[in-house]
Write a structure and sequence with these properties.
Elements: E1 10-19, H1 29-42, E2 63-76, E3 79-88, H2 92-107, E4 113-116, H3 123-133, E5 154-156, H4 157-162, H5 172-178, H6 193-198, H7 203-224, E6 235-237
Parallel strand pairs: 1-4, 3-6, 4-5
Antiparallel strand pairs: 1-2, 2-3
Length: 240
């Protein structure tokens, strides 16, 4: 199947999310009650809703997106480049609106595909849910309700690695390691994003991390196709 997918028809992406509020005590009382109920199913022994508040960012009802990095592979004179654009900042509605414009444009391609690591379980539905919450029309590319499986143009590097095995989760960093791809976690990892955002207020650092993840997804996909990876120096950042 992968042999039939052209690299120029794939948009690779990654998102970074954080809790809606800096701390548990900052949550409105009504939302806090919902989190307490959710946390009761997530917490291990001796854990409380407040102590696992940092996990709330991975749930679209309690978190928000602060960065989406999306890129595609282009070839120039036989050399592969990764062209990436990031939508980021405190205004989630603005960044989602900007990404929706890009996605509608890219999705107009007849054989366009979206690709992310664990995208089917996390990135794609999270983006869709947050768009609805922010009153943004979901791009047709993401609106999979009622579509037949073969009509959904999602590629997932984690799912592809399973080869039908549903027993385990394989991280992006582990796959990068075994395929000899530079680690995207050489500065921060997902568990540190909320602290960098709320306490260090360094969103640019998060953007760089997000872009590395998006590139790593593309690199892993190239290895799945038995093609050489992209030189990390061959990255073109689109700034508009």
């Amino acid at each position: 199947m992968l042999k039939e997918v052209k690299l120029e028809d794939i948009l690779f992406l990654d998102i970074e999310t954080v809790p809606l509020y800096p701390t548990y005590s900052d949550m409105p009382e009504e939302l806090k009650q919902f989190w307490d109920k959710k946390a009761s199913f997530l917490a291990k022994e001796n854990e409380e809703a407040q102590s696992i508040f940092n996990r709330s960012g991975i749930y679209a009802e309690f978190g928000k997106i602060i960065c989406i990095s999306a890129g595609f592979i282009v070839q120039k004179e036989g050399t592969k480049y990764f062209r990436v654009k990031s939508f980021y900042g405190d205004d989630e509605k603005a960044l989602l609106s900007g990404f929706a414009v890009m996605l509608n444009r890219f999705g107009a391609k007849p054989k366009a595909n979206l690709c992310a690591h664990n995208g089917k379980e996390f990135d794609f539905p999270y983006i869709s849910r947050r768009m609805l919450i922010n009153g943004i029309e979901i791009p047709e590319f993401l609106d999979v309700a009622g579509k037949k499986p073969w009509e959904v143009k999602f590629l997932d590097t984690m799912e592809l690695w399973k080869f039908g095995d549903y027993k385990s989760y394989t991280s992006l960093n582990l796959l990068a390691n075994i395929f000899g791809i530079p680690s995207p976690k050489d500065d921060i990892d997902g568990s540190q994003v909320a602290d960098v955002y709320y306490n260090q207020k360094d969103v640019e650092r998060i953007v760089k991390y997000c872009e590395k993840d998006a590139l790593t997804v593309a690199q892993i996909f190239l290895r799945y196709k038995n093609e050489p990876i992209i030189d990390p120096e061959k990255i073109e950042r689109v700034i508009e």
